[in-house]
């Protein structure tokens, strides 16, 4: 029986009923229009054929040599098997990494061998590629054990009713779609070469793509990412999976009527995703998920535009433009720091080519220049970024004149995401020098939610001072009723207060009130009453948190509160990765990458303590190293009404 656990699913889905029903694709492009495009595009060739050697050999020499060298390690590769016990580990211990690790090895080998054979073209990698095709065809399921809930579940998605792959009931998750699309590109490029060895190879590959991907997609509508969950809740799965279905259909499907049905079905799903987005275009899943949300939406629209010769395009619509612009508006510094609320890591390395192409599609010069900046930072042209085959090929052949585009960071002065209730302000527009401040209001039912209403992050000279820790390695608990037992999800491990001994709670009812971003005065100010994010037992009348950045001087964090009673501790928490010590009462020295900062507080009002937090999770350690610190300012008076102020100044 499938029983929806609200505390789980409201973490990760958007309710489209709360947004405008735009239906940008279905309302602008009829089935007849799609049918006309199909009739005209039967010989669609988005990339040069394997046999067009001059094109492949014209790619930069260093890139070709690096790609071939990478693939040579997979010559004679012993394709590892995903064991039943690896799948079982998810339901037994919550570990989803074992089957994912083996599939990762298979995916990387397939990618490297295919790219090297395309570039070298003398058949040296074909046998190993055929071995990979057969190994994957023999595999029952190309997806993740963490997604067995698509078979059905009891209580919540961490308790699936089927715990190993069922070949008689194929399901389509993110990874099934990814692998199906990669194998469709392998079929597209190498069918003739495979046929010279034996026609059985390509026929088997086509059969397995249909059995595992296309046939269940055509026949089923009960996968939530197709039509939404309950009243239409969706998230990044919808554009991600729909993109995979679209590409696989365009490559593999030969029946025009079936192709039409499949394309239109995918378009309707993407409409559902676009409908779900607020007008500010903000990705509530965080910038780490943008590549799979707004970014995957772009991938879908780009392929649809390429297939139709530009006739099916909605890149001129404001919501599409703002969904793209989100990623540079959320950018902080150094090529990989972003406004990492929700399940985002501290450092994110985005596909620079996608950002550049998205910028060109919406004719946004700032986004194009940001893409060019990242392409330069990532040394594009020297190697191929490991990704999906189609995405890598788009970056090889569809980046146009990126090298002649000025490479600039989008170091914007300030921005306010009105629907997300998140603001940012930079001390010096166009520079990482000085302070960068960001904060949010919102609610504790956002996608990939953390209990972080009112939290903030502070950077100085482009590096984090007070940070959002981000998210650790996903386990079964991450998307279960136990999510908020994970410390990184809790408000006490964000830059937030504990009030009357109580932390924030999860749920849409726990939200900010009267959130405002004003820039009518001399300096931008952000304020939000965060009292509603705490349970009623916290006895809060109001808790108005305010942030202000005064260029060249200071950042101020202020809490003006009134309580109904005092029955527990009040502690202001700050998370940092930097050494910090009290130099004298009322002053804390924080040593940043480039300078020392001084945090001023009232020692008669607050008592300073610092807790060392060892980091063992590999995902967190890759961002923070082995240690983080939690500063705790305990409020000393017994007042019901007061104002607490922290000031951070450069020394």
In words, what does this structure look like?
- Its main location: other.
- GO terms for molecular function: lyase activity.
- This is Heparinase II/III-like C-terminal domain-containing protein.
- InterPro entries: Chondroitin_lyas, Hepar_II_III_C.
- With about 650 residues, this protein is of the alpha+beta class.
- It has three domains: about 210 residues, no CATH class; about 160 residues, no CATH class; about 240 residues, Beta-galactosidase, Chain A, domain 5, CATH 2.70.98.70.
- The protein is about 35% helix and about 20% strand.
- It is built from 19 helices and 23 strands.
- Helix 2 crosses helix 12 and helix 16 runs antiparallel to helix 17.
- It starts with 5 loop residues before the first helix and ends with a strand.
- The relative contact order is 0.09.
Describe the structure using short key phrases.
single chain, 651 residues, alpha+beta, Beta-galactosidase, Chain A, domain 5, eight-stranded antiparallel β-sheet, disordered N terminus, Hepar_II_III_C, Chondroitin_lyas, lyase activity
What is the fold named in CATH at topology level of the largest domain? Beta-galactosidase, Chain A, domain 5
Total domain modules: 3
CATH class of the largest domain: Mainly Beta
Strand content: 15-25%
Instruction: Please tell me the CATH architecture of the largest domain by its name.
Output: Distorted Sandwich
How is the main sheet built? Answer: 8 strands, antiparallel
Briefly characterize the structure:
By secondary structure, the protein is α+β, with helices and mostly antiparallel strands. The protein contains 19 helices and 23 strands. It has 3 domains: about 210 residues, no CATH class; about 160 residues, no CATH class; about 240 residues, Beta-galactosidase, Chain A, domain 5.
């Amino acid at each position: 029986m499938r029983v929806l656990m609200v505390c789980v699913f409201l973490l990760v889905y958007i309710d489209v009923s709360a947004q405008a029903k735009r239906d940008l694709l279905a309302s602008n492009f009829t089935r007849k229009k799609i049918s006309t495009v199909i009739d005209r595009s039967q010989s669609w060739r988005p990339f040069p054929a394997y046999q067009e050697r001059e094109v492949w050999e014209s790619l930069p020499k260093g890139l070709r040599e690096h790609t071939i060298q990478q693939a040579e390690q997979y010559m004679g590769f012993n394709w590892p098997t995903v064991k039943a016990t690896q799948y079982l580990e998810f339901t037994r211990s919550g570990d989803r990494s074992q089957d994912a690790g083996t599939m990762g090895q298979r995916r990387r080998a397939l990618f490297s061998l295919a790219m090297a054979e395309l570039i070298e073209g003398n058949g040296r990698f074909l046998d190993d590629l055929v071995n990979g095709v057969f190994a994957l065809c023999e595999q029952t399921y190309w997806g993740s054990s963490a997604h067995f809930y698509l078979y059905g579940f009891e209580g919540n998605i961490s308790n699936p009713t089927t715990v190993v792959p069922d070949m008689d009931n194929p399901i389509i998750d993110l990874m099934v779609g990814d692998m199906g699309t990669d194998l469709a590109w392998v079929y597209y490029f190498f069918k003739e070469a495979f046929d010279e060895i034996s026609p059985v190879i390509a026929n088997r590959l086509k059969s397995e793509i249909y059995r595992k991907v296309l046939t269940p997609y055509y026949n089923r509508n009960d996968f939530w990412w197709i039509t939404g969950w309950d009243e239409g809740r969706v998230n990044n799965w919808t554009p991600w999976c729909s993109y995979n279905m679209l590409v696989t259909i365009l490559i593999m499907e030969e029946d025009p009527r079936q192709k039409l049905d499949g394309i239109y079905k995918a378009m309707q799903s993407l409409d559902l995703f676009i409908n779900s987005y607020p007008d500010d275009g903000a990705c509530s899943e965080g910038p780490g998920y943008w590549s799979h949300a707004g970014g995957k939406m772009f991938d879908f629209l780009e392929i649809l535009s390429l297939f139709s010769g530009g006739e099916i395009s909605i890149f001129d619509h404001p919501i599409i433009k703002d969904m793209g612009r989100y990623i540079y508006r959320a950018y902080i510094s150094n090529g990989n720091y972003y406004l990492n609320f929700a399940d985002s890591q501290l450092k994110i390395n985005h596909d620079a080519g996608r950002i550049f192409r998205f910028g060109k599609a919406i004719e946004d010069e700032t986004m194009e220049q940001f893409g060019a900046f990242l392409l330069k930072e990532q040394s594009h042209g020297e190697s191929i970024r490991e990704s999906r085959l189609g995405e890598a090929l788009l970056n090889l052949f569809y980046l146009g004149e990126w090298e002649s585009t000025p490479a600039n960071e989008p170091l914007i002065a300030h921005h306010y995401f009105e629907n997300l209730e998140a603001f940012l302000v930079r001390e010096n527009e166009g520079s990482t020098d000085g302070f960068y401040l960001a904060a949010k209001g919102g609610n504790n039912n956002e996608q990939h939610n953390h209990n972080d209403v009112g939290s903030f992050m502070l950077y100085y000279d482009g590096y984090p001072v007070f940070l959002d820790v981000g998210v650790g390695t996903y386990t079964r608990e991450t998307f279960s009723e136990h999510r908020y037992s994970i410390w990184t999800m809790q408000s006490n491990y964000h830059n937030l207060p504990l009030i009357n001994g109580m932390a924030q709670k999860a749920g849409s009812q726990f939200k900010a009130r009267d959130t405002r971003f004003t820039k009518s005065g001399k300096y931008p100010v952000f304020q939000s009453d965060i009292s509603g994010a705490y349970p009623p037992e916290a006895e809060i009348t109001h808790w108005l948190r305010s942030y202000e950045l005064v260029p060249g001087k200071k950042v101020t964090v202020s809490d003006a509160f009134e309580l109904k009673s005092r029955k527990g501790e009040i502690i202001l928490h700050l998370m940092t990765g930097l050494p910090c010590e009290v130099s004298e009462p009322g002053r804390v020295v924080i040593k940043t990458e480039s300078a020392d900062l001084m945090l001023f507080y009232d020692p008669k009002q607050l008592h300073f303590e610092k807790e060392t937090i060892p980091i063992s999770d590999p995902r967190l350690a890759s961002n923070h190293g082995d240690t983080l610190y939690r500063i705790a300012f305990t409020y000393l008076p017994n007042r019901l009404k007061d104002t607490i102020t922290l000031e951070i100044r450069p020394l």
